[in-house]
Amino acid sequence: MKKVSVHPVVIALFVLLLVTVMPWLLPLKHSTDPLREPASLGPSRPFDGQDTKENKSGVVASGLPVDLGSLNLKDWMRNQVGQIGRPDENPEQTMAVLKARAESLGTQDIRDLEQWALETDRSGDERFLAVEMLVMNPRLESAQSLGRILMSPEPSRAAEPALENILRARAVEGLGLHPRREATRILRDSLYRVSDRSLIDRGERVLTARRGAAPSAMDQDRQALHSLLKKIR
Amino acid sequence: MKVWGVYASLLLVSSLAIAQNLPVQDADFGCVTRAEAEKYVNDFRINISSFGGWELCSADKDTKKLLNDLLLIEKGSFSESESENSLIRGFIPQDKYYPWLKSQTRGVSRGNDVPYATAYNRMGYFTMQDGWAQLSTLGRVGVMIHEARHTAGYRHIPCTSGPYAGAGTAGCDRDYGYGGSHGVEMEYYSRVQLRGVNFHPVYKTMARLMAMGRANFVFNSPVLRAKEALLAMPEGGTDPQLFYQGKRVSREGPAVHGVLKRTSFGASIFEGFKALAIDLYQTSGFHPDLPDVYSYYKLLDRNNGALKDFEEYDSGGKRYAVRLDEQDRISTYNFPTGKWNPSRPLGLSVMKTVTTLPNGERGYFLIDSENRIFPFDADKNVLGPAKSESWPEHIETVAHDENGERVFLRSDRSVWSVSREGNWTPYLSGSWSSIVSVPVYDAYEVLP
């Protein structure tokens, strides 16, 4: 019988591969017990709360890159929304992930995000994330969407009135940050349909900053909040 | 080579397998461990059944929402500002939110017995209402912190300003410095934005805007104010003078005679047919006639004839634009539709319009030939009954300077201020034709 020799490096790589793949290939235990106990999955559990950082960043524990961007936008958004209410050990990486996806948005994605941002039966986290994605997209369509979000009247019986305001405030800032020159006109025109003083004020600040005549509205906010915290010391 | 080819194939298969199994539901990601959940339930004496029973994974369930919020409060961390003394603390020590919250909570349950409220605290027992369940994560965490402060005896008082002024229920705090429920909530949002270490970027942005949005309307004394300045036009001149940060700066004005107006952008000169913008921030050396397309005075483009007055002003958190024609017919701008409402005759002869009364009250007021003052309600598009006081004949206009002090342009073209005791003091030397308060967009002022 002919003896087959295999290089030790190849064996090591194969073992590494098995260790990496096996937990994913095995069916995950999804208990119907409402008091689910993720710890019972053992140390190889890939989806419990401890692994959120790796999952959301698109890099699994093995270090293999995963193309989360291949998920359709709806699933990708659902995935990201779940992270907003959890501690984030690497916010810079999170920001990079959001930005990368936002920059690749197509026309239909932008339309969907605009719609989701204004649907009051969606969660506040999801609606705000939808606006944030539009803010980070460089296309003209995203500026137009932000303008329409800004102009849309706040619902008279909103579940979270403050959320309705900050969604629109962020749309104002997004138009101020937008790389397209048309965003200035869109912001100015949209403000003519807005009667909320705080939004108009923010809009004017953004327009002034866009001309280089004042710090950005975000920096002005931070400066004010910094002074506020110092005030009680 | 073959071996490497097999390995590459397996790598591809494994990548595909991983991609296919990627979690996309909250439930797949954010499960709270049983140990964590039990700790929270014990620490806060949570009535789990009232929240719908145990649930560690699905954020669609109220139980999981509450557990998520407590996890974020416990694990959320803040950096110590380098420039500040760490021995001096705020309302709540920034590294003690969780133990503080625990110490202020005797129990948490879910109900909807006070449906108009988001949540309430009765002697340390919190009852989260349906409104709580509909909030964003930041909103829910803010509610927990807010309610916890009530346990120490901090109560709300009726609102005297902002959108809830006059409402039957007590929903405001005296001011930020009181350190009540609104104060600690604001402090939390501010810290998340400025010092938050391990918060999601979207959560941090929401916190900044939430802090700014709530800064004034939950307190009876404003916390943050847009900076203002006084703009005055010398008699016979065309270059308005800006009084800001204790300095006088000459600005370029167009070569037309009109009245200074405050605009959302800064200032304009209104001369009946059109408005020309004044750049408060820079000069060009050309004294250009810049049509005001920056503010709501742009709406004059849609007007056929001369107007007696045009004004944009703020009241109760809303912006209004009003036009008054030569026949004393008035109309308001409908922002959502982007059109003017139909003009209505006022039934009086308007001699003057002002946005500030001598007592400091702001709004839009029409003065008739007998110096009677009629407030205009732009929401209802109607004129209110004449005020008991008359417009003083020796006063032309009232404005505010950067310190909020009232400044008066008198009929003899001199500018004065008046102290709280009622003593008149010359404010500007020389002769002036018009004064107005203008917004300056370079910073917020944090009020004492």
Could you explain how this protein is built, in words?
The complex is a heterodimer of chains A (233) and B (448). Chain A is mainly α. Chain A has a domain at 73-231. Helices cover 61% and strands 0% of the residues of chain A. In chain A, helix 6 (124-135) packs parallel to helix 8 (161-177) and helix 7 runs parallel beside helix 9 (182-191). Chain A starts with 7 loop residues before the first helix and ends with a helix. Chain B is an alpha+beta fold. Chain B has 2 domains: 21-214, no CATH class; 224-446, Hemopexin (4 Propeller). Chain B is 23% helix and 28% strand. Chain B is built from 9 helices and 23 strands. In chain B, the strands form 6 sheets. In chain B, strands 10, 11, 12, 13 and 14 form a 5-stranded antiparallel beta sheet that branches. The N and C termini of chain B lie far apart (76 Å).
Provide key terms for this protein.
heterodimer, A: 233 residues, mainly alpha, 11 helices, 61% helix, B: 448 residues, alpha+beta, Hemopexin, 2 domains, five-stranded antiparallel β-sheet, four-stranded antiparallel β-sheet, 9 helices, elongated, disordered N terminus
List the helices and strands and how they pair.
The complex is a heterodimer of chains A (233) and B (448).
Chain A: H1 8-25, H2 52-57, H3 73-84, H4 91-103, H5 107-118, H6 124-135, H7 140-151, H8 161-177, H9 182-191, H10 197-210, H11 217-231
Helix pairs in contact in A: 3-6, 5-6, 5-7, 6-8, 7-8, 7-9, 8-10, 9-10
Chain B: H1 2-20, H2 26-29, H3 34-44, H4 62-75, H5 97-103, E1 107-110, E2 119-122, E3 125-128, H6 130-133, H7 137-151, H8 181-195, H9 201-214, E4 224-234, E5 241-244, E6 247-250, E7 259-262, E8 267-270, E9 275-278, E10 307-315, E11 318-325, E12 329-334, E13 339-340, E14 344-345, E15 350-356, E16 362-368, E17 373-377, E18 382-383, E19 395-400, E20 406-410, E21 415-418, E22 424-428, E23 432-446
Parallel strand pairs in B: 1-3
Antiparallel strand pairs in B: 2-3, 4-5, 4-23, 5-6, 7-8, 8-9, 10-11, 11-12, 12-13, 12-14, 15-16, 16-17, 17-18, 19-20, 20-21, 21-22
Helix pairs in contact in B: 4-7, 7-8, 8-9
